[in-house]
Design goal:
heterodimer, A: 183 residues, alpha/beta, Peroxisomal Thiolase, Chain A, domain 1, 6 helices, 7 strands, 34% helix, globular, B: 372 residues, 2 domains, 5-stranded mixed beta sheet
């Protein structure tokens, strides 16, 4: 059963079907959403665009539940999908090694060159010890996503999933469409 | 039950599962020191495929070895891969990431997308389904098998072909070097003098199906779990939280006396091996033999979970607990049972354990035969 949903694009933010007011666009929109709705998690500024996007979307989603307790739990999974994996972070890291005359590979950039880091960021923020997973498909396909998430309830402990699509090709182009699903 | 019907490994140690097992069983390793390769300023030790053997105009090296590995596994079966009841699941962390290098011009840029790479594979085999790519850092290979089990359990597919792959490049090696995670010599899992990991190339395939009746010689993917440390994106938990929890779920009601061994991640980084020893002890498994295959293959990333499951199945078939190459003196604080020698066993089950960046951990219980 689907309970709550959040959509974020460079121009629009929709929470449970209702548009959320904002003035910025693109990467500045993510920072605006952070300042207006979260504000107490400075790790946000270290994240790559994919993690920022997934983190903000999950925060807006979880705020709809009300009474956030941050109590550790193992029954909620975080399973996200996209098309471009960690392309934005990959491109940023490649730039640090492209030129042999200016070869300074950055560990802070390298760590984000894995798409599942965003699921880890959400688990850390909320103390979720449950399943975290990241799956890449070349086109958004609701049927594939829903089939996969229904299967994830085969885990003996999972009763709830933060699931959906979190994709970005560069800092200004992204799309999140995530939801909370209960068994 | 979810049963393994065929498997294959393409690695520097061989192009069949049997060749690979024979090499590991006799203590061979493909780890070598490379100096100046790919223009990298620092030398490194890795297990690499001969690039010339896998050069191809049509497919990248990753795609080529995936196609070879799946083709060889399929040869042992009569599966019609053009059927919509067959699903392909690819496990990889970086796929064709080398295409981001501006000097690489041989293939279309779009093939850097993991989904495009996977489509090249399914197109080759004429499979009509959209391939699923699991990209869950170093635990991808076990996650892909857990996904396969679920897809088969749901009844939507008759066969799932799981292939794990990663091929090393300047991108990956320089990244691990920047983390100071690479060992300057052959890695030493769980050893007191371990200095870090080695990287490796491989593709490994397992084909699974669903059966009601399992023969005595058949391998069952019995139960798996994925759990997060909820602690740090690049450092493992000090309490082994995610690995401990994944182990507990995978083990379920099984008595630990039934386990031949735990095939650990055992990357030979200081933090990983220490964390695994904590998780194994917390899960009440300190008396179960533990081994790591990283001294033979290096860390093959997206392939590791599949490759190490295949080698471990063959070891149990051979009544053997493989020795941990590179290990000498236990260097973790929790007393686990590691040896550098092959040891005999009559037990018929093992656990494959993995952990990775993003705080993710996975455990998979594999059992032989249907009596359970």
């Amino acid at each position: 059963m689907m309970k709550h949903s959040v959509i974020i694009t460079p121009e629009h933010v929709v929470v449970d079907g209702n548009p959320l007011m904002h003035s910025e666009k693109g990467s500045a929109l993510l920072t605006e959403l952070y300042r207006n709705n979260i504000g107490d998690y400075p790790k946000f500024f270290k994240m790559d665009t994919l993690s920022k996007l997934g983190f903000i979307a999950s925060e807006l989603l979880l705020n709809t539940e009300g009474n956030r307790s941050f109590e550790p739990r193992e029954d909620r999974a975080v399973i996200l999908f996209n098309r471009n994996a960690s392309l934005q972070a990959d491109t940023a890291y490649q730039a640090t090694i492209q030129n042999p005359e200016n070869f300074f590979p950055s560990p802070a950039a390298f760590v984000y060159t894995l798409p599942n880091i965003v699921t880890g960021e959400i688990a850390i923020r909320n103390k979720y010890f449950g399943e975290t997973s990241f799956i890449v498909i070349d086109d958004y396909d609701e049927k594939i996503i829903m089939e996969n998430l229904r299967n994830a309830f085969q885990d003996p402990m999972t009763t709830s999933i933060i699931g959906g699509w979190v994709d970005c090709s560069d800092e200004e182009h992204f799309e999140a469409k995530i939801f909370l699903m209960e068994k | 039950m979810i049963v393994c019907v065929a498997h294959n490994i393409i690695s520097p140690l061989g192009v069949t599962s049997a060749e690979n097992y024979a090499a590991v069983e006799s203590g061979r390793s493909a780890l070598k020191r490379y100096d100046g390769l790919w223009g990298l300023p620092e030398p490194f030790v890795a297990s690499l495929l001969d690039r010339d053997v896998y050069t191809d105009d049509r497919y990248t090296i990753d795609e080529r070895i995936v196609i070879d590995s799946i083709s060889r596994a399929l040869k042992e079966t009569t599966i019609d891969v053009t059927s919509s009841k067959v699903l392909f699941i690819i496990s990889t962390t970086k796929g064709n990431v080398f295409l981001l290098d501006k000097r690489e011009t041989g293939f279309p840029q779009e093939r850097v997308r993991l989904g495009m790479m996977a489509r090249e594979i399914t197109k080759h085999f004429g499979n009509p389904n959209e391939p699923i790519v699991v990209s869950n850092a170093c635990i991808s290979g076990v996650c892909a098998q857990i996904e396969a089990m679920r897809y088969l359990e749901s009844g939507d597919y008759d066969y799932v072909i799981v292939c794990g792959v990663d091929v090393q490049s300047a991108f990956i090696v320089s990244g691990f070097q920047s983390f100071k995670a690479l060992s300057p010599e052959d890695c030493k899992p769980f050893d007191a003098n371990r200095q870090g990991l080695n990287l490796g190339d491989a593709a490994a395939t397992i084909i699974y199906t669903r059966k009601n009746k399992v023969d005595d010689y058949e391998w069952v993917a019995y139960r798996g779990a994925i759990r997060n440390d909820a602690n740090h994106i690049s450092g493992p938990s000090r309490t082994g939280e995610g690995s401990y929890r994944a182990l507990k779920v995978a083990l379920g009601g099984l008595n630990s006396d039934e386990l031949a061994f735990i095939n650990a991640h055992g990357t030979a980084t200081s933090y990983n091996d220490e964390m695994e020893s904590i998780a194994i002890e917390r899960a009440g498994l300190a008396s179960v033999p533990v081994n790591s295959l990283k001294g033979y293959y290096g860390h093959t990333m997206g392939a590791a979970g599949v490759l190490e499951t295949i080698i471990s199945m063959q070891a149990v078939d051979d009544h053997n607990i493989l020795g941990t190459r590179g290990f000498d003196t236990l260097g973790v604080t929790h007393p686990i049972d590691v040896s550098n020698q092959n040891r005999a066993t009559e037990k018929r089950a093992f656990i494959k354990l993995l952990s990775g960046f993003g705080g993710c951990n996975a455990a998979l219980l594999m059992t032989k035969g249907g009596q359970r």
